[in-house]
Design a protein that fits this description.
Rossmann fold, homodimer, 2 domains, mainly alpha, two-stranded antiparallel ribbon, Dehydroquinate synthase-like, alpha domain, globular, 345 residues
């Protein structure tokens, strides 16, 4: 790897009995992870070290959980949605700021044969340690830096653009992370060796999804739920699927989200004029403009010509897996989902 | 206790073998703590539960450290300034939001016979758990609520009003805590049963000193160093000693702190006009006005007539204990300390 991390890690591990396994792809794939689990069991591995971005860390979490699982199929860990209380201990060396997986106990894994991209996790899946060196950002391609900025930004929005919940300090923290991401974005996009921008970008990504801003506050995650389906269907980068869904989701749900969107407009974007609804709409436009400033397109048709039928297909996928409601109040219906996705064509 | 906490705790502990000890005073006193340590040793206590405010929790941390200490005198734990790596496990039930001790590993203890009020701590002194119920605030006297607001506010300032250090996200978090304290202050002072104000006040106090905003940033703590001496000399409440020192400390050190004070003025107090120095001075006035709005006086002469000679005495106390420098760059001299304290008369 041109960032030099591989050599650094090898050197740090000299003297230990180390087995290497590469090839965990973006959207960590179940079949690849199964191979890793087999190696862990046959070779009596006792500690895992994830060196990579969110996909590698998420995949390692799955391996960690599966290594100590006694049931029939490791996929149960994902589908049963039971919190994972114990996993094989693991550490992480983060090479791509974005997902926050380095400081949380959640994971998203993908299964191509069933077209599933699903989240799981539990208190047993926190890393023992994570090493974050902002200098790794210097070797990340610009489109992936853009993805990281957008991903972290949406992580915060999913925990902030809800109904007002009196979590005044959490709101300030969320706004602070978003302000920092907005402020560092042009600098880190232009010059990834800018240490000030790189370090604040990296720390913002971690704080966006380590549980801090979630304390005592509701969370939406509908954008992620829908976005995951777009990745499964079209192979679109995770962060870009979020950018595709955001505007239509917030526009469609304006009524229940307008107070927080207006506060967002005022505090983060400095919008001072207009009614609550006008400010909320201004926030939605500002968010879209931020994605565009990162070179991220925000319509599904920007990524594929074959978008017809996507809305109905996705809504039906959720129904087939057992509809549990969606959004911070679990009040969205499959019909709502279809409309939101269609608005994003 | 009229807050009902005592009964709640007793009920929760029914079935356990519990020894009670009350009487830890504000500024936990060494001689009282020694008695507790003796009981812990003779009765084979294995777990400590601090039910109270910062003084009770800090005192419990000292007991925790001393219970496992083999040396000659437990006071060594304080004077040797060696990080405490292991303590007897303890939990906390917080009854007075202010110090943040419920989520950090630091402690300040007092020894009347030698007129010392000193900090110590280490990774072995984190609580196993802390219970924070904002409803306890309803029974706290108004002057103690004011103390808690001022204490937490100065905790943030000590980690923020330094030289600029490129910690962009930490700055935003610090500003968010201070904004929240400013916003809740009039509400919680007026009506301590206001749950929204109480919960955000309590959470702000914890986040002000749990290490979060300290990551990758410099810290001053000179206000605390000088304030502790005022408590030892005159018995002034801890928070009020901080309010006494703040204005003169920031005015005296304006040159090295003006950039952060100006940022403070802009982002927290909405000051938009003026030079950096004018904004910095505006911030200092705003801080003083905030203390006054809490009914907290900001001159030493507001608390005692016997202030003559205090400045020289305090400077000399630090010299006698071994001068290590003071302030975020350790650049203040004993002469600087004397001048700052004198400005606060």
């Amino acid at each position: 790897m041109k960032n030099g991390i591989y050599d650094q890690v090898k050197k740090a591990l000299s003297g230990f009995n180390v087995l290497e396994m590469g090839g965990i792809p973006p959207n960590p794939e179940y079949m690849v992870l199964l191979k890793a689990i087999e190696i862990v069991k046959t070779e009596n591995v006792t500690f895992l070290l994830a060196v990579g971005g969110g996909s590698v860390i998420d995949g390692t979490k799955f391996i960690s959980a599966a290594a100590l699982y006694d049931g029939d199929s490791p996929w149960d860990l994902v589908t049963k949605q039971v919190p994972i209380m114990k996993g094989m201990p693991f550490g992480t060396v983060l090479t791509l700021p974005a997902t926050g997986s380095e400081m949380n106990s959640g994971s998203v894994v993908t299964r191509k044969d069933t077209k599933e991209k699903l989240a799981f996790g539990g208190p047993g899946l926190f890393p023992q340690f994570s090493i974050l060196d902002p200098q790794v950002i210097a070797s990340i391609p610009q489109n992936q830096i853009a993805n990281g900025l957008a991903d972290a930004f949406v992580h915060v929005m999913e925990q902030y653009v809800t109904y007002p919940a009196d979590a005044m300090l959490n709101d300030r923290f969320s706004e602070g992370i978003m302000q920092t991401l907005i402020e560092v974005a042009p600098h880190i996009m232009k010059d990834p060796t800018n240490y000030k921008a790189a370090s604040n970008f990296m720390w913002s990504c971690t704080m966006a999804l380590n549980g801090l801003i979630q304390k005592g506050a509701p969370a939406d995650w509908a954008i992620h739920n829908m976005g995951h389906e777009l990745t499964m269907l079209f192979g679109i980068d995770h962060a870009r699927t979020l950018a595709i869904i955001t505007k239509s989701h917030y526009t469609y749900n304006l009524d229940s989200k307008k107070e927080k969107l207006a506060q967002f407009a005022e505090r983060v974007w400095g919008v001072t004029n207009g009614t609550v609804e006008e400010k909320a709409l201004a926030a939605i436009d500002k968010i879209e403009a931020f994605f565009h400033s990162l070179g991220i397109k925000t319509k599904l048709s920007d990524y594929t010509d074959k978008y017809e039928g996507t809305a109905e297909y996705i809504a039906n996928q959720f129904v087939e897996r057992g509809w549990k409601g969606m959004g911070e109040k679990r009040s969205l219906t499959p019909n709502d989902v279809a409309k939101i996705v269609k608005m994003a064509y």
